[in-house]
């Protein structure tokens, strides 16, 4: 498993000179490339408009990135296993809508017991993931097909429940996630930070996380080592589902409302981020920190274009272009002979 | 003709080639020997253009060349047969042979399969392999795949006008004795057209085939020996840096096994097309060797025991419990460990580091409530890196970057440290240098002392005889004969061969 951003602690030659040489190898260049791309982008946008480099703008980026990061982390687990999960839009939409309903049904304010909605929705996310995993593993349907289908079912269910309407929540205690700021950043950013640390812990300190890498790095070998590969796969989808549910809840906190399309756009943003961050789509390589950097790159590009005043109609095309440039700069495409 | 001067290659934390001088003349067979991790494969990869040297020069007929990739090297007539299998398993044999060079068979954008098949047949004939070129590669045995790889490289004969250099990195490690003989005949035949570089850990083979032998140690060439100028022992001493124990197989440490304690029992187990009516018992402390030719059913017995295949009839008992609906997971839980032959696919996960690979089959022992004790894992890895002198810069080293032999050592420590008491070893010493082989033999004796039962498929017949308490000779999936092998009263090679063919 790669510990992407920790090359310094990797043991090796004790000699100073060797150390320096070791730091300049191609492997390390690849490992640090996404971070360098991020820094480069920040410098670029700041040069064009110094207002970019302000605490307020960074808070804005952080808020925009928060739900996306949760989705991207969820899908990272799956991609590390060498599978893909495309159910995020449906799952985020459905959990966001259901969250509003449960929240309103249990009192409409956190103080009055509506906090129950949070664990309930996390459970719903896990359930959707479980269905996803079971369909993929038990029916032996490729993960992208299974998850894409489940995603559509989720969106459909959300439409059915809302009847196409918007559900609003205006509970001050819940909206504190957005409004209550510590050191200039709203509470939800800290929640996301905590979830990210949790995800990192799962990735590098639990058997489950290790198993994801084993399955992604060599499924046959994992099987031959006595791992229950099918269970690992299902657990991966469950875990991803939970993170999508967190994103659903944060999406409601951010906008104060939910509708069936609350999850729109997350598929492109999250998978792009994961790739830009340097997680290999064929599995086994990269991890949470790559994804964090990837999400930041995509959001910095998004935000930067607004700050430098690019016309609206150019932004989408520009994002696409910059993403390709970022992928070119930040991922190691030399080792891949075939790009699928 | 082909020459390397002061070639250097560094990897993070490893100086893999140190100012290596190397040359090969027209029609010559050059042997290359050295310990695991000495840099043999790296040298081959530099020659073949897969790695670019950090320093030094490469010249062909006096002209300096620099290959950016293997294809450029191939255009200059340099071809490589890989140590690890490199054919694409889901393609057919002919597709693999002409991979990247299909153009010659294309008419108006359509591949003429018949022409390709004809051409493939011609290549296969060069290695005397009589199979249908349309066979899917994964259906072939390891030995057959090795020959297909050679056939693939031999397509250079038609494509390149100049001299050929063909690199063979441990081509014999998966071959049976008669296949090795045939390969040698083919290679000698081909010296009219090509030069060869031949890497092997089997000293007798290297000495038999090579005109000159380069001896490598720690990334440097320490000696070049002409044919007949040194004995095997002298060469081994040069590469290991010490003399090698005469008592190679540790026979003096072979103690009688515990006949009262049956670990594993097979009762007329059959798998159609692979094994029939196999009955055997494995006792605590016993080393049971399965002997036979390729396809005689040795691997099928191991895989059945490990739950990777389900027998159609017959009973399998592990420690007295009849097993049904067996799978590797249940096998591991029952204390069975399996060191497979094909380590690239089933041995190590490239991309995972040493300690992660070692604990893969025993994560339960290194975790509590799903949370890993990484410190303990690392300690385990450091311990085994020391015990088996695994050449890795640290426990963080990516196993995919270790040399072939060192990967094998990681696989062995993975299962040995896992506390399994039924060990299935398929060619455990494949690709290991002599020093490491000794370590493995020592390890097998240790396991016997600990009451572990071992089923072994050995690399050579000598190894089988030297190590085992019991030998079972298989032919066409059936047991031919059973030999007791008490120290001092072991069967001879001839005894075994008699029942094998
Ligand atoms: N891509 C790589 N990255 C980092 N280190 C490498 C890489 N390839 C090889 N090495 C290191 O270079 C050294 C030489 O390896 P090499 O594969 O050439 O050994 P070898 O002589 O072929 O050994 P064996 O007999 O075990 O196959 C080893 O220490 C190995 O770990
Ligand atoms: Mg090698």
Write structural notes for this entry.
The complex is a heterodimer of chains A (340) and B (501). Chain A has 340 residues and is mainly alpha-helical. Chain A has a domain at 54-265 and 280-286. Chain A is 70% helix and 2% strand. Chain A contains 14 helices and four strands. Chain A has a two-stranded antiparallel ribbon with strand order 1-4. Chain A has a two-stranded antiparallel sheet with strand order 2-3. In chain A, α3 packs antiparallel against α13 (288-307) and α4 (88-105) packs antiparallel against α5 (117-138). The relative contact order of chain A is 0.19. Residues 1-22 and 334-340 of chain A have low confidence and may be disordered. With 501 residues, chain B is of the alpha/beta class. The longest helix of chain B has 16 residues, at 434-449. The model of chain B has no long low-confidence stretch (mean pLDDT 87). The relative contact order of chain B is 0.12. In chain B, α15 (404-417) packs parallel to α16 (434-449). Chain B is built from 18 helices and 24 strands. In chain B, the strands form six sheets. A six-stranded mixed β-sheet of chain B has the order 6-9-10-3-11-12, with helices on both faces. Chain B has a six-stranded mixed β-sheet with strand order 18-21-22-15-23-24, sandwiched between helices. A four-stranded antiparallel β-sheet of chain B has the order 2-1-4-5, covered by helices on one side. Chain B has three domains: 2-244, Rossmann fold; 245-334 and 421-428 and 453-501, P-loop containing nucleotide triphosphate hydrolases (Rossmann fold, 3-Layer(aba) Sandwich), CATH 3.40.50; 336-420, 3-Layer(aba) Sandwich (Rossmann fold). The radius of gyration of chain B is 23 Å and the shape is globular. The interface between A and B is large, with 35 and 37 residues. Residues 40-41, 83, 169, 403-404 of chain B line the site of magnesium ion (MG).
């Amino acid at each position: 498993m790669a510990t992407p951003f920790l090359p310094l602690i990797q043991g090796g030659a004790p000699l100073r000179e060797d150390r320096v040489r070791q730091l300049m190898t191609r492997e390390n260049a690849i490992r640090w490339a996404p971070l360098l791309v991020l820094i480069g982008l920040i410098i670029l946008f700041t040069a064009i408009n110094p207002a970019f480099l302000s605490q307020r703008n960074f808070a804005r980026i952080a808020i925009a990135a928060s739900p996306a990061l949760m989705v991207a982390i969820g899908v990272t687990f799956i991609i590390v296993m060498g599978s893909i999960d495309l159910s995020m839009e449906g799952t985020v939409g459905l959990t966001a809508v259901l969250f509003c309903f449960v929240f309103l049904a249990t009192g409409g304010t956190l103080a009055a017991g509506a906090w129950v909605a949070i664990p309930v929705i996390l459970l719903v996310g896990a359930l959707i993931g479980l269905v996803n995993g079971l369909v993929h593993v038990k029916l032996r349907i490729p993960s992208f097909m299974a998850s894409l289908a489940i995603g559509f079912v989720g969106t459909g269910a959300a439409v059915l429940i809302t009847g196409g309407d918007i559900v609003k929540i205006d509970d001050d205690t819940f909206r504190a996630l957005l409004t209550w700021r510590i050191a200039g950043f709203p509470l939800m950013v800290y929640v996301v930070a905590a979830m990210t640390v949790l995800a990192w812990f799962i990735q590098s300190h639990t058997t489950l996380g290790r198993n994801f890498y084993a399955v992604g790095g060599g499924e046959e070998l994992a099987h031959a080592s006595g791992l229950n590969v099918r269970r690992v796969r299902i657990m991966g989808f469950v875990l991803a589902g939970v993170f999508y549910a967190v994103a659903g809840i944060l999406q409601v906190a951010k906008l104060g409302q939910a509708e069936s399309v609350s999850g729109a756009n997350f598929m492109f943003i999250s998978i792009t981020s994961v790739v830009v961050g340097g997680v290999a789509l064929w599995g086994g390589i990269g991890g949470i920190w790559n994804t964090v950097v990837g999400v930041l790159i995509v959001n910095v590009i998004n935000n930067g274009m607004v700050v430098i005043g690019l016309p609206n109609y150019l932004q989408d095309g520009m994002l696409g272009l910059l993403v390709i440039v970022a992928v070119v700069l930040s991922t190691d495409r030399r080792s891949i002979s075939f790009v699928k | 003709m082909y020459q390397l001067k002061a070639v250097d290659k560094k990897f993070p934390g490893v100086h893999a080639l140190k100012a290596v001088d190397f040359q090969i003349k027209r029609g010559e067979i050059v042997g290359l020997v050295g310990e695991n991790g000495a840099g043999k494969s790296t040298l081959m990869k530099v020659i073949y253009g897969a790695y670019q040297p950090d320093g030094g020069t490469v010249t062909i007929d006096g002209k300096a060349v620099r290959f950016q990739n293997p294809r450029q090297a191939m255009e200059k007539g340099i071809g490589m047969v890989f140590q690890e299998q490199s054919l694409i398993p889901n393609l057919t044999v002919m597709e693999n042979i002409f991979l990247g060079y299909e153009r010659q068979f294309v008419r108006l954008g359509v591949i003429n399969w018949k022409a390709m098949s004809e051409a493939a047949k011609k290549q296969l004939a060069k290695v005397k392999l009589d199979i249908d070129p349309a066979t899917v590669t994964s259906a072939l045995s390891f030995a057959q795949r090795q020959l297909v790889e050679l056939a693939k490289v031999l397509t250079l004969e038609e494509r390149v006008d100049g001299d050929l250099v063909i690199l063979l990195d441990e081509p014999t490690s998966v071959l049976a004795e008669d296949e090795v003989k045939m390969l040698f005949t083919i290679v000698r035949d081909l010296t009219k057209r090509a030069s060869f570089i031949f890497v092997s850990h089997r000293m007798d083979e290297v000495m038999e085939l090579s005109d000159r032998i380069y001896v490598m140690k720690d990334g440097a060439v320490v000696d070049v020996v002409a044919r007949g100028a040194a004995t095997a022992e002298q060469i081994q001493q040069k590469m290991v840096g010490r003399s090698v124990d005469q008592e190679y197989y540790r026979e003096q440490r072979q103690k009688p096994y515990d006949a009262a304690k049956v670990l594993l029992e097979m009762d007329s187990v059959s798998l159609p097309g692979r094994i029939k009516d196999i009955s055997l018992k494995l006792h605590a402390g016993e080393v049971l060797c399965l002997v036979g030719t390729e396809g005689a059913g040795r691997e099928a017995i191991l895989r059945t025991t490990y739950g990777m295949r389900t027998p159609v009839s017959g009973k399998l008992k592990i420690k007295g419990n009849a097993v049904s609906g067996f799978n590797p997971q249940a096998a591991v839980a029952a204390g069975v460990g399996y060191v497979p032959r094909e380590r690239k696919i089933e041995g190590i996960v490239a991309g995972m580091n040493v300690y992660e690979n070692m604990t893969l089959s025993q994560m339960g022992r290194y975790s509590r409530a799903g949370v890993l004790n990484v410190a303990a894992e690392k300690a385990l890895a450091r311990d085994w890196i020391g015990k088996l002198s695994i050449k890795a810069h640290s426990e963080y080293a990516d196993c995919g970057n270790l040399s072939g032999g060192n990967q094998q050592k990681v696989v062995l420590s993975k299962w040995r440290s896992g506390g399994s008491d039924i060990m299935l070893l398929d060619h455990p010493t494949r690709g290991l240098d002599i020093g490491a082989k000794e370590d493995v033999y020592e390890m097998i004796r240790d396991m016997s002392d600990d009451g572990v039962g071992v089923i072994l498929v050995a690399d050579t017949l000598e190894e089988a005889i030297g190590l085992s308490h019991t030998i079972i000779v298989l032919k066409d999936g059936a047991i031919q004969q059973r030999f007791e092998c008490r120290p001092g009263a072991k069967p001879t090679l001839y005894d075994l061969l008699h029942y094998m063919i």
